[in-house]
Amino acid sequence: MTSLKTFSKDPQFSKLRAALWPIQQNELKKFIPMGIMMFLVLFNYTLLRNTKDALVVTAPACGAEVIPFIKLWGVMPCAVLFFLIYTKLSNILSRENLFYACLIPFLLFFGAFAFIIYPSKEFLHPSLESVNALRESCPNVKWFISLYGVWSYVIFFILSELWGVVVIALLFWQFANEITRTNEAKRFYSFFGLIGNLALITAGVIVEWLAGIQSDIPPEQDVWGMSLTFIMVAIVVVGVGILGVYWWMNRYVLTNPLYYDAADSLKSKKKEDKPKLSLKESLLYLISSKYLGCIALLVIGYGISMNMADVTWKSQLQAYFPHSNDYFLFMGRFSFWTGITTMAFILMTKGIVRRFGWLTGAMIPPLVVLVASGFFFTFVLFKDNLDSAFALIGVTSVYMAVMIGAVQNILSKGMKYSLFDPTKEMSYIPLDQELKVKGKAAVDVIGGRLGKSGGGFIQFCLLTITAGTQMTIAPYLFGVIILVVLGWIGAVKGLSKLYAAKLQEEKVLKSAA
User: Fold this and answer.
1) Per-residue pLDDT for 107 more than 90?
2) Which tens digit of pLDDT belongs to each residue from 71-99?
3) Alpha-carbon distance 366 to 396, whole Å?
4) Closest to 103 (Cα-Cα) out of 167, 189, 183, 39
């Protein structure tokens, strides 16, 4: 026993323990509920992401080509509308009530989708015959007609996309940035990603189990509908859990100065006593901030590059898995391996920012996205020439495109959760309260949607001009990705200088106080 105590006091052992588990004992009451929130939020997002793709891509008269149209003409306008409403509500509601007001409508819709909307789809949607007739008579707008034919699925897709931006990027991370000190963030944030990716693994296992129940159910029953019901019930229950943890933290954690700086709380109250900015003033205030502009460029760069590679991959995925349940099953396995890989990345990279600095940590994701996308697009463009070679090992070139695209996607998402998100969120911490609340809303909601919708707009234009498919425009998409990633790298360099200056300014103010 004495030797164990002596060993535990050894400096080398203390360093090893700090590297593996840097969270201190007195921080657990704050860290654990935040980690639980991260787990629950990402668990729901994984289920929604897999479900929305399976609903829309495999729907009648649809395909992966409709995704850019939804993101451009559906998700982006709704994100702008949400930002306008959010900015107005932030001047009226308290931080806690604003969180509830944003989250509860999502849960109400997803519950209604399971028990009212999807069971009534035959009544709510136009017939497939009428949709196909319209597509033939108006070929230039055939993708819009396809979306009209499954309009309730489109609404589900839009709200599922907004969950990732509103609940993860805005509500959770804004809450985390407000209550987490800079020295805590360096230790907390990488572990939030680690815990969050346990959610991807858990959700992937559940999705695979739900998709696999079709073997035990008679073919005349709607297996996909049963899976949807289970998923929506899980999402609502988990959403209520998020609300509960958030409520508990506000009552039993943030009231303690040990976990939430009393000075920061006082500063927030003083800011709340100041006159609120109008919506126009808020937008002008944000546009004038070079710091926020650099963060927005990071978010837009990631969104555009990932969107164009993702839709191209899903076109191959839909060709190989044309049925909803099969597509859903593959996405469950994909989520599982994304979680495993990302956890490995987090463990391997969690000390990069602390050891090599913010710039190194923020520079790795664009480089990985560029290399992985280059490999995927090169294969897709030449896969038809490799059919005979792959036939020798018993697979098709489409199958290989699906697998290589999955690897590209997993690597890119792994970099997002392990380095992109933590470094981006750390850059918000030195900002004042006004920029943290409204600036983060503008960057994450509008900037995030501009990224994905910008990719959608580019694909929309190319599909319209060429009147082709996703494979027709693939060479042009890769060229755009190269340019976007180069711009992303430039924004990282610019933000690095501004971030270092903000941290220095923060140190000077603290030393003066």
Assistant:
1) yes
2) 888 887 888 788 888 888 888 888 889 99
3) 31
4) 167
> At residue 267, does pLDDT exceed 70?
no
Q: Is the pTM of this model over 0.85?
A: no
Average pLDDT, the chain: 80
Helix (H) or strand (E) holding 389: helix 387-391
Ordered alpha helix ranges (H), 253-289: 262-273, 279-287
Could you read off the pLDDT of 351-367 as tens digits, one per residue? 788 788 888 889 999 99
Sign of the CA dihedral with 319 first, then 324, 329, and 334 last? positive
Tokens 């899980």 map to which residue?
A: 234
Q: How far is CA 169 from CA 3, 114, 162, 235, 435, in A?
A: 47, 26, 10, 18, 15
User: What is the crossing angle of helices 142-149 and 151-162, to 10°?
Assistant: 90
Q: Are 316 and 401 in contact (CB under 8 A)?
A: yes
Tokens, residue 287: 């546009």
Rounded CA separation 23/17 (Å):
10
| Phi, then psi, of 91 in degrees rounded to 5 | -85, -10
Q: How far apart are CA 389 and CA 396, in angstroms?
A: 9
* Whole-number Å distance between alpha carbons of 116 and 53: 20
Q: By the 8 A CB rule, do 103 and 159 touch?
A: no
What distance in Å separates the CA atoms of residue 96 and residue 155, rounded to the nearest whole number?
27
Quote the tokens at residue 337. 């391996």
Angle among Cα 36, 299, 358 to the nearest 5 degrees reads 75
| 351: number of Cβ within 10 Å | 14
